[in-house]
Specification:
The chain has 416 residues and is an alpha/beta fold. The protein has helices spanning 15-18, 25-35, 65-75, 79-82, 91-102, 114-129, 134-153, 163-174, 190-201, 214-223, 234-237, 257-266, 298-336, 340-366, 371-399, 403-412; strands at residues 2-9, 41-48, 52-59, 87-90, 182-186, 206-211, 227-230, 243-246, 272-276, 293-297. It has a 6-stranded parallel sheet. Strands 2-3-1-4 form a 4-stranded antiparallel sheet.
């Protein structure tokens, strides 16, 4: 049996291919059950995110041809259209790949933590679909343990490496409780959405989304229980904001010194934290001259991000060493499974012998024999029966000069 990891990701395939091979959550259950019927595949799980789609399987062989044909048939796409973008790993390399993915070492943003949650979602989906067996279940559990150890023993996830996250962390340093603050986010693009998500996850009290197009602002605000306004309404709401983050594609400033100065007066000079993530700038540089305003630009945050990225790279080196050790631990577990059937048969044989001798002892006890005599007889008889076959085999090994078997027996039974 072979462990297989087959997939595409942001590094190997353009989004036009990735989106065609994506598996939405609402079809995953039936998809997994269907995948489980593919020839030679006994266990299966699917990880599907915006940046990757990966298939984890336990199969009779390491040949992924049947799996590739199934993908083509399921997605109604010719194998030649996506196979050049695929990567495939088996056994040790597939184990290592799963560990690296879960730890964020294979992510677009090194060390990002979201992928571990997505990996757990993939596990639960496969568990619910009934497509996990002993091997993949154990591999997923070991994957989660490896990721936890990397997070605990290294600093790979401790430093922000996106401007959105860096802005939110800076806000946390300035305000004791984000739950008591109002954030005004200007724009509705990816950076503002990520900023909103981080603020929401960190318990921000209130979010206002301002955008040139109201519908876009409303669609984004709705995700975070926020309030949407247009850019023309900014002067009426700016004074409400303790935190302002702006990232638009405007060629001219959105906020000028006069407007911010007016808002500060309305706030009775309560401090305002502002982050301008746009290039060119959304906030006039002169705003920085105002008292009670803390204005940061994308360049201010980028210096921090560069330093943090260096820190993550150093942590990633430590993480690779941890993963190497964890891979060996899982391989040792896999190898041990080859002995399980023999162990089970050996124990069953011993228990049958025990039950046979015990029944005879109980019968003797019922015929009036003393308890002391029965215990002596039971110990002597059980010992002889359990040792008879191994001793007979060792004598035969000696007669046939099977010194390897004798040496193995001494190691097996820890005989000095």
């Amino acid at each position: 049996m072979t462990l297989i990891a087959l997939g595409i990701n942001y590094n190997t395939a353009p989004v036009s291919i990735r989106e065609r091979l994506a598996f939405p959550a609402d079809i995953l259950d039936n998809t997994l059950k269907n995948l489980r019927t593919v020839r030679d595949i006994s266990e299966a799980a699917i990880l599907s995110t915006c940046n990757r789609t990966e298939f984890y399987c336990h199969a009779e062989s390491g040949d992924a041809a049947a799996l590739i044909d199934w993908i083509a048939d399921t997605k109604q796409i010719q194998p030649t259209e996506f196979s050049p973008f695929l990567y495939s790993y088996t056994d040790q390399q597939s184990i290592r790949h799963m560990f690296r993915v879960a730890c964020g070492l294979d992510s677009m943003i090194l060390g990002e933590p979201q992928i571990l949650g997505q990996m757990k979602t993939a596990y639960h989906a496969a568990y619910q679909a009934g497509t996990l067996g002993k091997n993949l279940s154990k591999l997923f559990q070991h994957t989660f343990s490896a990721a936890k150890k990397v997070r605990t023993d290294t600093a790979i996830g401790s430093s922000p490496v996106s401007v959105a996250f860096a802005a939110v962390q800076l806000a946390q340093q300035i305000f004791d409780k984000l739950s008591e603050q109002t954030a005004l986010l200007i724009g509705a693009g990816e950076t503002i959405e990520l900023t909103a998500r981080h603020l929401f996850q960190h318990g921000i009290g209130r979010i206002i989304i301002a955008n040139r197009t109201y519908d876009k602002a409303h669609a984004l605000a709705r995700q975070f229980n926020g309030y949407a306004i247009t850019l023309s309404e900014l002067p009426n709401h700016l004074a409400e904001a303790d935190i302002v983050v702006s990232s638009t594609a405007s060629t001219l400033p959105i906020l000028g010194k006069g407007g911010v100065e007016s808002a500060i007066r309305k706030r009775k000079h309560k401090p305002m934290f502002m982050v301008d993530l746009a290039v060119p700038r959304d906030i006039e540089p002169e705003v920085e001259q105002l008292r009670d305003i803390y204005l940061y630009t994308v360049d201010d945050l980028q210096n921090t991000i560069d330093q943090n990225m260096d820190s993550r790279r150093r942590a990633a080196e430590q993480a690779e060493e941890i993963i190497d050790a964890q891979v060996q631990h899982f391989l040792a577990w896999l190898r041990s499974q080859g002995a399980q059937e023999t162990i089970r048969d050996f124990r069953n044989q011993a228990m049958l012998t025990r039950d046979e001798v015990l029944q005879k002892a109980l019968a003797q006890l019922g015929h009036g024999a003393t308890a002391e005599d029965i215990v002596q007889w039971l110990a002597h008889t059980l010992t002889n029966k359990l040792l008879h076959t191994p001793c007979a085999q060792l004598r035969e090994a000696g007669a046939n000069e099977r010194h390897d078997l004798i040496a193995a027996s001494r190691e097996l039974f820890k005989l000095r």
